[in-house]
Amino acid sequence: MPYEVKSLNEECGIFGIWGHSDAAQITYFGLHSLQHRGQEGAGIVANDGGKLNGYRGLGLLSEVFKDDRLLLSLQGSAAIGHVRYATCGNGSVDNIQPFLFNFSNNSYALAHNGNLTNAKSLRKELEQGGAIFHSNSDTEILMHLIRRSKQPTFIEQLKESLRAVKGGFAYLLLTETSMIAALDPNAFRPLAIGQMKTGAYVIASETCALEVVGATFVRDVEPGEVIIIDDNGYHIEKYTEDTQYAICAMEYIYFARPDSNIAGVNVHTARKNMGKRLAQEAPVAADMVVGVPNSSLSAASGYAEASGIPYEMGLVKSQYIARTFIQPTQELREQGVRMKLSAVRGVVEGKRIIMVDDSIVRGTTSRRIVQLLKEAGAKEVHVRIASPPLRFPCFYGIDIQTRKELIAANHSVAEIEQLITADSLSFLSEQGLIDAIGLNFDAPYSGLCMAYFNGDYPTPLYDYAEQYQASLREKISFA
What we know:
Elements: E1 12-18, H1 23-33, E2 41-48, E3 51-58, H2 61-64, H3 68-72, E4 78-84, E5 99-102, E6 107-116, H4 119-128, H5 140-148, H6 154-164, E7 167-174, E8 179-183, E9 192-195, E10 201-204, H7 207-212, E11 216-220, E12 225-230, E13 233-238, E14 247-248, H8 249-255, E15 261-262, E16 265-266, H9 267-281, E17 288-291, H10 297-307, E18 315-317, H11 330-340, E19 341-343, H12 345-348, E20 352-357, H13 364-375, E21 380-385, H14 413-419, E22 424-427, H15 430-437, E23 448-449, H16 451-454, H17 465-472
Parallel strand pairs: 14-23, 17-20, 20-21, 21-22
Antiparallel strand pairs: 1-4, 1-10, 2-3, 2-4, 5-6, 6-7, 7-8, 8-12, 9-10, 9-11, 12-13, 15-16, 18-19
Helix pairs in contact: 5-6, 9-10, 9-15
C-alpha cells in the first residue's frame, strides 16, 4: 500500500458568540470541544466595537494559540471561530478560516462548514466578472456573491447569495453590528443556538460546545434559515421555503461527539441503538464484545446489552498520540497503528471476540485491528459494523469524493470478510440505521442523508456530476 490510510474526516467545526466581554476566550473553549471536527488549522476573529481583528494558523487549536498574547490581543464582545479539515482547498494558511474581509465601507468575517457542489462553476463565473480570490477554498465564494448582489440591504444580499450556492453549508458571519448564521436547505450539517447566563448568545456546530461554555440550548438552526444576532437579541428569517431535512447520517455514526444532540437525538443514544439493532440483525456465538475506541464504544455497549454477551475492554487507545504522518515503509505503518491502539492480551487471549466498529472505509485499518486481536491470542474475531457498507462518495463536506477509497464499492461483504481476515463480518442494514437514529421527519429516510450507502443523493450534484459518473466506473484493489 503506497500511503497511510486516513479515516473519514468531516470538514470543520464553527463557533460564535455575541455579547460577552471575553468573546475570543469563550470561542477558544468552544472550538476546543469541536477539535474532533478539524485538526489541520484554526482561527478566531473578534469584534471590538465594530473593528474586526483576527488570527489563524495551521495545526491544532492549542498549537495555533500557544502564545497566550494572541488570544488576549483579540479584544471585543463578539467573536467567531473555526477548526478545519480540508475537503476543498489545500493545506495553506490562506485557506484557514474565518476569512476576514476589509472593504472600504465595511468589514466582515466568514466561517463555513460543508462543501458547495457548484463552487467550480460559481468561481469561474465570478472570476470572469472580475472577482479576485485569495484562497482556493469554496468558502470565499459567498462573500463575492454578496458583494456582487444589487439587493438594497446586506441581509437581502446574503439571502440572494445563499440561494445561489448549492450543497452542504453551515455559515457563520461576523459583521460590525451583528453575528449571522445560515444553514443549507437540507441541514446536512448540524448547527445549534445557545444562551449563557450572562445573556450572550452562542452558535456552534454541536451542542457539546454549548455545554462546555455553560450555555443553555435554545434551538437548532433549521434548513433554509438565517439567524441574526445583535444587541437586541436574535431573530429568524428564511432565505428559501424549498427545504427538506437530509441530515448527514455519518454525524450520528462517527463525526459528532457522543454528548451532542442533533435534531433532538442524543448521539450516544443513537449509536447504542445501532449496536442493539446490529445484535438483532447479526447475532453470533462469542465470549465478549469489544468496541474499537472511541467512536464505536457506544455501539459496542448496545450490542453487548442486546445480546447478553459481556462487554470488555479488549482494545485500548493511546490518549497521547496526535496526528500521524505518511510512513515510508509497511513496517513503520504497522508500528504507527500499534502506537495508537493496543489489544489487551489478558482479556482477549483464548476468547471468541465480537469486534464492533462504526464503519469500514478502505478496510486496511480493520484488518490491522483484527490481526492485533489475533496476535494477542483471540480465538475468533467476528467483526460487526454499526452502519451499512460505505459504497458511494460524499459531496457535501466529507473528504471521500471517489469510490477508489471505499472497499465496499467493489467488494462483497464475503470478500471484505476474507480481506480483513475476520471469522465473520456483518453490517447494519439501512433500515436498521434509520430506525436506530429515529428522526422521523416527513422526508426520505426519515430525514437522513443515506447517499454514502445507496447513492441516492438528496440534491443535484452540479459540478460533481461527471466526477460521480466516473467514480461509478472505478475499480479498487485491496492492498
